[in-house]
Amino acid sequence: MDRLLAYLAATPGARRALTVAAGILVATAVVLLGFPVYTDLVHNDLQGHLRSQFASQATKQAYETGKIRDGQSLTKIDIPKIGVNVVVVQGTDDAALRAGAGHYPSTPLPCTTGDVGIAGHRTTYGKPFANVDRLGPGDLITLTTPVGSCVYKVNESPFVVVADDWGVVSNTPGLATLTLTSCHPKGSAAYRIVIKATMVSSESFT
Question: What's the predicted TM-score (pTM) here?
Answer without folding.
Answer: 0.81
